[in-house]
Write a structure and sequence with these properties.
The protein is an alpha+beta fold. It has helices at residues 43-51, 93-103, 108-122, 126-129, 138-150, 168-185, 196-202, 220-225, 230-235, 271-274, and strands at residues 4-13, 17-27, 32-36, 58-63, 66-67, 78-82, 156-160, 188-193, 205-210, 213-218, 242-251, 254-259, 262-265, 281-286, 291-293, 305-315, 319-326, 329-336, 346-351, 357-359, 366-367. Helix content is 25%, strand content 35%. The longest helix is centred in the middle third of the chain and has 18 residues, at 168-185. The structure holds adenosine-5'-diphosphate (ADP).
């Protein structure tokens, strides 16, 4: 078991592409840390540098407080699970699981013990151990790939988008299996995905990356409730946070967020930070579940209520997404399936302004 420490880590490819830019991260022993961000943000490169599959351009990596910059991959005591499984097609499942241990010259009895233990943990039957990878389903193959990591009993598990090739239902199932696995093995796990739902459900802590730079490191609740900046706010959550453009008005000691048909009172705890933006256009962020159809709102004070036109009604089963327009702003309202709003209707919507976020127009950093 081990902690992993990244210090001022950068990867510069030729032509000065800074794929990873000065990343600092302390991953604790037994922690499940997820690196998440859009394609090309540098998460795989970071993982591959930890694994030793990619040279480090600048900075340092420590595993269990040992500097590993110059330690070859095979000596880092790390196991990596890839998206494409990377199983040997001509070997049986048993042989695939045993292969890494054979290479390392483990005694036959120990190999057999470890393979059966891994198979038991992952629910791979004796019959399955005799099959070749092509005789398995996608989910079973991914389980074998994980098994190959487990038998090694590594200090750290690395996962590079391991569920991307599976269909939606299997992904959800494998997600739960990975959580159980982490709970059972109590190992340090570092997991890369572009899927924010996967990140929220799996990570003890989540590292959001963009353009090679770490945007925020937080647990799932804090990441969702208190995004550092507009990028994180828009990336985490589905449907995503609404961004509305408006002007900050000051009237009689109060501040308002205002646009053509919109005038919403800002709550006083923002005043000290929002005052400097008086008269400026800024972005307000609010999640779809923090806007209510007035009929169902608990607190429908006029200063939190505006009129919007319903463009699209999207029933989702337990709830409905209403896509609405007010002036030049479009946003989504998430309501219960009891809501009867219809297309083209004018709807009174109430904003829970205690859940509003404001972002600096120049930097995108959250004003809070
Ligand atoms: P992610 O895993 O977040 O999708 P990557 O870490 O794979 O992103 O890539 C980060 C950036 O580095 C991308 O812009 C990508 O094009 C670039 N990149 C990745 N590998 C190489 C390479 N071998 N040579 C040059 N550029 C690369």
């Amino acid at each position: 078991m081990a902690n992993v420490s990244l210090k001022n880590l950068s990867k510069i490819y030729k032509d000065d592409v800074r794929a990873v830019n000065n990343v600092n991260l302390e991953i604790h022993d037994r922690e499940f840390v997820v690196l998440v961000g859009p394609s090309g943000c540098g998460k795989s490169t970071t993982l591959r540098m930890i694994a030793g599959l990619e040279d480090i351009s600048q900075g340092e990596i420590f595993i269990e407080d040992v500097l590993v910059n110059d330690v070859p991959a095979k000596n880092r005591d790390i196991a990596m699970v890839f998206q494409n499984y990377a199983l040997y097609p001509h070997m049986t499942v048993y042989e695939n699981l045993a292969f890494g241990l054979k290479l390392r010259r483990y005694p036959a009895k120990e190999i057999e013990r470890r393979v059966h233990e891994a198979a038991e943990i992952l629910g791979l039957t004796l019959e399955m151990l005799k099959r070749r990878p092509k005789e398995l389903s996608g989910g079973e193959r991914q389980r074998v790939a994980v098994g190959r990591a487990i038998v090694r009993k590594p200090k750290v598990f690395l996962f590079d988008e391991p569920l991307s090739n599976l269909d939606a239902k299997l992904r959800v199932q494998m997600r739960m299996e990975l959580q159980k696995l982490h709970n059972r093995l109590q190992s340090t796990m570092i997991y890369v995905t572009h899927d924010q739902v996967e990140a929220l459900t799996l990570g003890d802590r989540i590292v959001v990356m963009h353009h090679g730079i770490v945007q925020q490191v937080a647990d799932p609740v804090n990441l969702y409730e208190r995004p550092n900046n507009k990028f994180v706010a828009g990336f985490i959550g589905s449907p995503p946070m609404n961004f509305l453009k408006g002007t900050i008005l000051a009237e009689d000691g109060d501040y308002f967020f205002s646009d053509r048909n919109i005038k919403l009172r800002i709550l006083p705890h923002f005043y000290s930070r929002i005052a400097q933006f008086k008269g400026q256009t800024i972005t307000m962020g609010i999640r779809p579940e923090d806007i209510y159809d007035k009929i169902f709102a608990q607190d429908a004070r006029p200063e939190f209520t505006i009129t919007a036109t319903v463009d699209v009604v999207e029933p989702m089963g337990s709830e409905i997404y209403l896509y609405v327009t007010s002036g030049s702003n479009n946003f989504v309202v998430r309501v219960s399936n009891q809501d009867t709003a219809t297309m083209n209707q004018d709807l009174q919507v109430v904003f829970d302004m205690s859940k509003a976020h404001f972002f600096d127009p120049l930097t995108g950093i959250a004003i809070s």
